[in-house]
Amino acid sequence: MEVLWMLCERTECAAECLYPAPVIETLLAPVIALLNGQQVRLKSPAAALTLIADVLARIANTDRGLALFLYETNLVVTHTERTFPAHVIVQFTLRLLEKELSSPGEPDGSQTSCGAFIFVCRQMYNTCEGLQVLRPYGLHKAVAAAWKKVPALHFSI
């Protein structure tokens, strides 16, 4: 992961090493599998998904990476369907928010993964282009609905 993080920081390296479609497809493979109802073989699914989200957020934080997620790369989702990484990321985040996906044996894992993927979406929403592309998904409404379900925290002073 540290190597991926270093590559993300170097724009030229990231463009050559991280942005090609096969690399993005590999990063998103566990996400796509979970969206398709398949099992993923990871030691710690929540930790792995959180690390994947971290790399995706770093990619989305650059102009070139954002353009890649929103417009350029067609991911193979099924044998007959192709889509953009932003679509996969937002759909996965929505499913996490709606608690349709969970990590077996890791009760808090879904919350951690959900927060990490919300941050990836935030990186994409951070621009007018990203907001325009992602707005139809209604992620902002799903986040607001999930936030309303969180019990109020009481702090003692």
Task: Explain what you see.
This is Protein broad-minded. It comes from Liparis tanakae (Tanaka's snailfish). Residues 1-150 form the BROMI middle region domain. Pfam families: BROMI. Strand 1 (75-76) and strand 2 (82-83) form a beta hairpin. The chain is globular and about 45 Å long. Helix 3 packs parallel to helix 6. It has 9 helices and 2 strands. Mean pLDDT is 82; it is low at 153-157. It has one domain. With 157 residues, the protein is an all-alpha fold. The longest helix has 17 residues, at 109-125. Strands 1-2 form a two-stranded antiparallel sheet.
Strand content: under 5%
Report the radius of gyration as a whole number of Å: 16 Å
* Widest beta sheet: strand line-up: 1-2
- Mean pLDDT, as a whole number? 82
- Shape assignment: globular
The residue ranges in which pLDDT falls below 50 over 5 or more consecutive positions are: 153-157
Overall number of domains? 1
**Can you write the helix and strand succession as a string?**
HHHHHEEHHHH
Helicity, as a percent range: 55-70%
Distance between the termini: 40 Å
Tally of extended strands? 2
Class derived from helix and strand content: mainly alpha
Number of helices: 9
Largest sheet: 2 strands, antiparallel
Domain BROMI middle region: 1-150
InterPro entries: BROMI_M
Protein name: Protein broad-minded
